[in-house]
Amino acid sequence: MKKQRSLLRSIGVGLSVVVVIVVFAYGFKVTKVNLKETRSEQRLVVLTRILRALAHPDIITYEQEEVNIEVPIYLPCPEEIITLPEPDKTGPYLVTDVACAASKEFILVEGYSFEPGSKGPINFIALSGAKIQLDNFETDANGYFQVSVQMPTRQPVVEVQHLRATARVPVGGPQFTDTAKITWAKIVETVFLALLATTFGTLLAVPVSFFAARNLMSDVKSSLASVALTIIGWPFGILIAFLANRWISELSTPLSANIGINVGGVIISPVIAYALARWALPQEELETPKVPMRIARILTLMVSAICIIFLLQLLASLLLSVGQMLIQPLGPVGFLGNFVSQVGEIVQIATPIILALAGGGFVGSFLSTYGQNLSDRLSDSYIKGINLFFAAAAGALLFMLVGAGINWFYQINDPVKIYLWPGAVGAVLGLLLAIRTAPKDALPIGTTLYFVMRTILNATRSVEPLVMVIVFVVWVGIGPFAGSLALALHTIAALSKLYSEQVESILPGPLEAIKATGANRLQTIVYAVVPQIIPPYISFTMYRWDINVRMSTIIGFAGGGGIGFLLQQNINLLDYRSASAQMLAIAIVVASMDYISSTLRERFV
Amino acid sequence: MLEVRNLTKIYDGDVLALDDVSFSVNQGEFLACIGLSGSGKSTLLRCINRLVEPTAGKIIWNGIDLTEASQDEMRRIRRKMGMVFQHFNLVSRSKVIINVLAGRLGYVNPAMSVLNRFPKSDVELALKQLERVGIANQAYKRADELSGGQQQRVGIARAMIQEPEMILADEPVASLDPVLAHSIMQYLEQINKEDGVMVICSLHFLDLVHRYADRAIALNEGKLMFDGTPEEIDDAKFKEIYGKEAERVG
Ligand SMILES: Nc1ncnc2c1ncn2[C@@H]1O[C@H](COP(=O)(O)OP(=O)(O)O)[C@@H](O)[C@H]1O
Ligand SMILES: [Mg+2]
Q1: What residue's CA is closest to ligand 1, atom 16?
Q2: pTM for this entry
């Protein structure tokens, strides 16, 4: 019995060894492991050449003065006796021990009166003008050198040919090569690419991380009516925001033509907006206000919001025009003007997005509160009816939006297929949900949102920035901007995940204490969560900064700008000395950024 | 007047933490809640301000049923219930004064408070509360630089700045040594006697109950075992509350 078992075990072990061997053999096959290749003579010669080129990064040159001195020579020796003319000894001159030589024969070349410390090649200059390098020389302190060179193998030629010594003397100090200069420019580009990607990625990852933290989301629960009304409210809010934006921009565009009015608007509208908001949001309030008061406040806040939209639009056009005007007069720092106008552009692009989010959020949360109030107040049978109606409407709306999205990708363009069917399916699903949930049940909407968020983040994170950049290159063209966008997107996904894990590991006590004071959700986050997560957030941001610096050095391989682009080009052109300069630069930048961030981390965390 | 009727709490995973508990507390009363650990004291206190959602039963405070209140209404109600915790639950990296001001979050304008701006009157009130518990000079230190006793005083100041009508204290002195325990209990007593604030306080030591409480209730495995004056807890009652093996100390 026991013996049998140990036999089985041995067979098992033997089989696993065989399996392992087969797996690795297959691995060798698919990765084309070929050790003979590594020892082939031809490959070794190439490798040596490349390694030597890499060891001589193209960074520094000296400006050089070149002197070419020739001496006549016959190859091969002619029939009659020949004598060479006496060299001109007023300057540097060459002397050979023989006047003629056969192919492959060694002759002695001596140089006199050269610049001390000069060096260069000795070439054989054929009748055709072809140049064959025979050797190199270097003069001593007296400007003298002596080299034994082997004559090349050539067709016999009767006429006199020449040996030429090209003496190069450095004049002036060391200089950076063009390669070094462009490498520097690209390294700067690389570092800023990493900086922008890290900054914007972090700014967006912070709010996203709260939605991906289970402990903050798990107790967000709403009644079905509230959820359904929120789903209906968002698209309407976005629509209203778009319309408002268009309407206000019709008002503001003529105003922004005049720069004086423009500046005035930028100054006055925030003051009005602030004053109105100040009135509508009193500092402290003990009692819930009455309904007319609340309506008055909402209207005031709307006017305040219109002022803010007005401000954003005027500000964008002001920054754009002022920035453009500044580029010329600022001269060498004209990029500041460009920056100002780019900020204007950002404001212009961001305004509708912010408005859409604000509008959707406002209408959504207003209707959500309304739905919650309905659920809290009304009797069960009423709520059931309300739930059925709104859940069906919300389901239909949601699925129609999804249908519209699918249509955008696949161009089906058949309203029955993209609106009617999905709408019907959504309505039925909504009805089913409403039938199945008890009227006053609180749905775990936070947990659902948490899972959706996590899924999106995980999916985004699993796409490498090097792949993302391909899409962005198509969108915004080859260059560092595409690279920053790709890196920023990956940073958002990766950091949100890391951040949200930190949020999940905070102490629950302070959270509970702040909640117990009657603070709302946002206040709880600001007062109980934020202070606890600052140190880990800083340290993860720095960690990400390190990754982004590394990533930005190679994102150029896929067209994302920065030094990688240059490096890839030089590798493809077989210009290994330039490539070496860029590799060196990458190593220095990565190492020094690593050092800086680890020092900062020690200081702050 | 607080009235708890048939309160039951079953946690996820079928833990019966409170089992049909009913009692009432009068205005201005100091009620002690005793019981072994795990008997449901913390759950009871958290059900009152609905940090924990009750499974069944009613909690009626000043005529309002708290279990029926919406989230929004509950936020407003919580402003009038200060809470003090065993482990202080201060935000340790924030300044003491910010920890105290956090008690005003339910009152102030949310938009301004998110930017860390509080009305001047609130800052003055915070300093006054810190002075009352004798640590006004520590106001601008980080909370984790303070000793345990000082941290609990910050916790009391945070509850008091809410201008509460009720204080829920969950073993407020269990992580302090006995000398400090008395000073913390004295602050609670002062709040109760001078300001007429109702205090519901869970406690471990019977001598503290005798010394400070007007009335006591006792829980055992979620069931209410006793409701009466501290003097009524005789040896028989004691064994009933704490189990047969329990030995009375102090
Ligand atoms: N969040 C929770 N989830 C599940 N069970 C819990 C939770 N909190 C407390 N309990 C359980 O409920 C019971 C009562 O706990 P608690 O109210 O903390 O008692 P006490 O404060 O008297 O020590 C214990 O059995 C405990 O394990
Ligand atoms: Mg407890």
Answers
A1: B40
A2: 0.79
